[in-house]
Every structure is written in C-alpha cells, then in structure tokens.
C-alpha cells in the first residue's frame, strides 16, 4: 500500500511538475509555437448526429439530374437558383444555399466531397441485398447500431473504437504521455474508446475544475479542503476497488490542473473564431480545439484526434426549417476553423472530416425525411486534395440499381475506406490497416486518394 501511495504522489507531482517546467521555460508565443511544429498531425472528427440529409447539402445541377432530384424531393427540394455551384471540373453539382464558406473552401481547393459513403461489411449490390448473398451491417437503419458500427468498425464489438485503436497503435508518437491522444469535446463516444487507453474529455469552455478544491490561494478555505481531500484519497484501504477509485480521482485531479495550467499559459490570439464562439456552441467547441492544437508544443504531442458532435440531424419533420440552421452552424464552424489554422500556420497539419451514422431517404415523408443509408461527407485541410469529388456519385432515381427502397441509397464507398485514407495520412503503416480495420480487406481501394 505504501507503493500505491507513492505512485499517486508521483502522478500528481509529475502533472504539476511538468506543468511547472513548461510554464517556467519562457514559452514562445502561441503563433511561434504552432509554426515550429514539424511532424505534428491532428484529425478532427465532426459527427453529424441523427443522420444528415446530405442529398440536400450536395445537389446535382445538370438539367436532367436536377429535375429527377426535384421530382422526388418535391417541396423539400432546394431550388436550382439557390444552389451554390462547385468548380470541380466534374459533374455539375452545387451546395445548399447556407453552405457559403464550404463552397469557398471547396473552390479554393481546401475541401473535398466524398460521395455516397456509409456502413458496409463488404461491397453489396441491390440484387445481393435482396437475395441476402451479401451481408449489410446489422440493424441497418437504427441510430444506435449504425453509430456503433461507424465509430468502431470492428465487426460490432464494443471493446474499442477505431480512433481508440489508432491511439494505442501510435502511442509512442507522443513524447509526453500525460495528455491522451484522443480528446473529446462532446463527452463519451464509441469512436475514441481504447482497450488500454481512454480519451480525455474537455468542455468547449475549458477544463472542468472543482472550485471548492481550488489551491490557487494557499490561504483560502478551499485550499485547506483540498489538502484534506488529498489526504483522504491517499489513505490506505484494504479494498482494491476503493484504492482504484482513489487513484482515478487523484489522476483526474492532477490532469485537470495540468491541462488548465498549460492552456492558461498560452496567449489568446485575436482570431474571429474566439469572438464567434459566444454565439455558436459548435464554433465554441472548434475554438477549444484550436487552443489545444496551438498548445501542442507545450503538451509535447505529435498526434491528436479530436471529436466534436453536432446534433439535431434526425429531420423526420419540418426539415426545411430545422436543417438550414444546422448547416449554417456547420458552415460557419468550418470557415472559422480553417481560417484559424491558416493564422497558426497549421492548415497542412490538421484534417477535419464529417461523419454521420447514415444518410436519409430521397423520398419525403410529408415535411421531412426518414433514415437512409449512403451519404456524402466533407474533408477539410491544407493536405486535402480539395476542389474534387471522390467516390462514385449515385443515381438519384427511385427504383434505380442504387435504391433498396424509398430512396435508401446503397453506399459505394465504405467507412473503412474513408477511415483508412485518413489513417494513412495520420501515420498508420499500410501493413497495420487490416488489423486496425478488420473489414478493410473486403474492399479493393483502401486509400481513396483525397489526402496528399
């Protein structure tokens, strides 16, 4: 038990000691820190919870294709005159009229579209789907099951998510092991769970500290309370679970102080994303990610995976009213986030990407849409070969070879391929991909080519 107490004190002293070393070492200004970070890479997962209606985000503009889309969508169709055209040199497509920043980023070559992506165990045709000669993921149109599948990509087990496995595979990439490679701005999630390593969660407003245990002023009553609580946690107990709980509490306490001290040490740059954070909770989360990325030299990390959730996309009703504000939040966030990365000189080091458990039906159910399958996604970053549409565009016609009913479109690109492409850029060796993503071997093209 003496060893256990020493270990707890060591963890605490390391957290405070390392923070003290960093804070006392004449930290360079935030901009200089960021620009000096050769070899740093971060992935930012933007989860569009509920099943984003990508068929109203990314719309064909060719006469025949648009007329087919409009005939199916009826009152839900975005008018052709409102669509924001994309300069891809490929098939004529446009974006929803509230995706102005997204259009600009695409046309500047900083953002790409990945077409018709979704959960697949193996490639599947319409005939194979109905003949049951190829297996789709179980419970195909269930929010919970499809979120679980997209976030774990490990044949349905709950033991780990794909980002959790990446963190364990690349753990030694980070010099300092204090801060987890996976950082969530949206609480617990399947994607970042590891077997031996757990993500670190931080609020969009910062690290949650217990004011009643503040040690900022050694003479304050909260400091004396903190000393008592520390003694309580360090007490010798015969029960292993009690000791484990005490260790977790001590570790969390030390880590919260460590992260807070480093963030507080960083000068706050005058960037529009921080001003906008007060009016948009999604932007506030992205602003905190910017702060954490900018402090990566102080944290001594070279690889990070961030997760942020933007909810509300389950638009079974009143879709025209509900969907537009969500896209405005997403669009503002993408524009401000990339602008901040450019100001920090880190646009080539960070890749943001969208995910959603499924798309939505082409058909309407009145004034909304129902759970679909394939969907389109955005990939943003300086390393992205932007201004292009990747993957195979579906035929937007009912009863086509792509439609398994009510405009539920079969994906032609799997999340495994999507994630494998991100992971290769992130530093995962080609030989490790099949272990990381067990179903990847079922697909012919594990690297989709959208990242340099």
UniProtKB/TrEMBL annotation:
Name assigned to this protein: DUF1501 domain-containing protein
InterPro entries noted in UniProt: Alkaline_phosphatase_core_sf, DUF1501, TAT_signal
Signal peptide feature range: 1-34
The entry's keywords: Signal
Protein's UniProt keywords contain Signal: yes
Pfam families named in the record: DUF1501
Top-level taxon in the UniProt lineage: Bacteria
Organism: Bowmanella denitrificans
């Amino acid at each position: 038990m003496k060893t256990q107490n020493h270990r707890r004190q060591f963890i605490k002293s390391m957290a405070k000691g390392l923070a003290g070393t960093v804070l006392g070492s004449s930290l360079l200004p935030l901009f200089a820190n960021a620009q000096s970070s050769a070899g740093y890479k971060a992935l930012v997962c933007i989860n569009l919870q509920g099943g984003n209606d990508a068929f109203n985000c990314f719309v064909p503009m060719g006469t025949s294709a648009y007329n087919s889309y409009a005939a199916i969508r009826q009152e839900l169709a975005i008018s052709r005159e409102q669509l924001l055209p994309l300069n891809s040199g490929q098939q004529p497509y446009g974006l929803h009229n509230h995706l102005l920043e997204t259009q600009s980023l695409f046309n500047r070559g900083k953002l790409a579209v990945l077409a018709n992506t979704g959960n697949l165990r193996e490639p599947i045709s319409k005939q194979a789907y109905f003949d049951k000669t190829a297996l789709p993921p179980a419970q195909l149109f269930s929010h919970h099951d499809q979120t679980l599948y997209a976030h774990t990509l490990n044949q349905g087990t709950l033991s780990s998510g794909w980002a959790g496995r990446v963190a364990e595979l690349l753990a030694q990439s980070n010099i300092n092991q204090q801060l987890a490679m996976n950082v969530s701005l949206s609480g617990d999630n399947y994607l970042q769970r590891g077997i031996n390593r757990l993500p670190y969660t931080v609020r969009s407003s910062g690290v949650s500290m217990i004011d009643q245990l503040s040690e900022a002023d050694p003479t304050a009553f909260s400091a004396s309370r903190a000393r008592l609580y520390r003694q309580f946690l360090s007490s010798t107990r015969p029960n292993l679970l009690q000791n484990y709980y005490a260790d977790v509490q001590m570790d969390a306490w030390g880590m919260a102080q460590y992260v807070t001290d480093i963030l507080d040490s960083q000068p706050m740059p005058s960037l529009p994303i921080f001003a906008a954070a007060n009016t948009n909770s999604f932007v506030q989360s992205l602003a905190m990610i910017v702060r954490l990325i900018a402090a990566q030299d102080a944290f001594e990390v070279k690889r990070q995976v961030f997760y942020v959730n933007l909810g509300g996309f389950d638009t079974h009703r009143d879709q025209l009213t509900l969907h537009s504000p969500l896209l405005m939040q997403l669009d503002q966030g993408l524009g401000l986030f990339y602008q901040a990365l450019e100001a920090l000189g880190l646009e080539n080091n960070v890749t943001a990407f969208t995910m959603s458990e499924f798309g939505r039906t082409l058909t309407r159910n009145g004034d909304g849409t129902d759970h679909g399958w394939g969907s389109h996604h955005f990939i943003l970053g300086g390393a992205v070969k932007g201004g292009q549409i990747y993957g195979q565009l579906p035929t937007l016609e009912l009863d086509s070879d792509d439609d398994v009913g009510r405009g539920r479109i079969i994906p032609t690109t799997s999340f495994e391929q999507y994630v494998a492409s991100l992971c290769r850029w992130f530093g995962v060796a080609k030989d490790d991909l099949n272990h990381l993503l067990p179903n990847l071997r079922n697909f012919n093209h594990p690297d989709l080519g959208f990242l340099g």
